[in-house]
Amino acid sequence: MKRRNFLSNTGLTLGALALSRYTSFASVLEYSAAYNIKMLTENVGVFTEQGGTIAFLLSDSGLVVVDSQFPDPAKHLIDELKKRSEKPFDLLINTHHHGDHTSGNIAFKGLVKSAVAHKNSVDNQKRVAEEATKAGRKIVEQYYPEMTFEKDWKYKAGDETIKAYYFGAGHTNGDAMIHFADQNVVHMGDLVFNRRYPFIDKAAGADIHNWIKVLDKAMDTFGTKNQYVFGHALDPEKIVGTQEDLKAFQNYLEKLLIFVEQEMKAGKSKEEIMKATSIPGVDEWKGDGISRSLDAAYQELS
Ligand SMILES: [Zn+2]
Ligand SMILES: [Zn+2]
User: Fold this and answer.
1) Of 267, 266, 256, which is closest to residue 292 (Cα–Cα)?
2) 36-188+200-241: which CATH number, 3.40.50.2300, 3.40.50.300, 2.130.10.150, 3.60.15.10?
3) Which of 26, 118, 192, 195 is most open to solvent, judged by the fewest CB atoms within 10 Å of its CB?
């Protein structure tokens, strides 16, 4: 990769550039995860460093954080929020169980009063940790949300109402949307990969057909007046968007199913189908990992 591209892709700060003159390129790579905080409204902001986008609410009664990335980014976020508010940490919410959204939970243990997630998310988090331990892989210490819900869930933080919605399986079988109802911001978790090939976790009950319906319900529920936060985006600036981005991602999923179904009907083998380098009609979708989309669609249509 050209150095210029590398720098712009990793979002290195000027400070890191200065540092790079004195250190090896390898340590610059380690340094590449400069964090970023952006306020979307007076009280709601987003944090990015490594892994799925975090959203937070600074309420009169305490701080609420949605997702936790990894332990180090979580600590950076906690330090930043302490500078912005003197209120205590109140609640941690997970959109779903994946490690890039929950590995930092441990940094909030003992700091928040409690953590909450969809029941399937916590079940998945426990299962994945058990499997990893059995396989001899080292994982960070887990903090499992002690509060769970199955359908809707609602919480009052000071004057602010927070609602969680579950519309069934999509990216996994435990993806909740977290709505800061008074601020008109909704965290979609990994139900939207903005212009980037999604991870479709079949082992955790992902369902592309239902995912399309989940996005319909989300658009019906949140409409055009909300800002939407996405777990991942190809362009780091586009982790926040509009209902149009939900429509575009839904279109990606629809075109993916149509393409794989047509190929199967034409008698192509899985190996042949997996050779595709783009999905016809949705060339806005890029990045690594088209194979995960093709493989998941093939499994679902077989
Ligand atoms: Zn993610
Ligand atoms: Zn995920």
Assistant:
1) 256
2) 3.60.15.10
3) 26
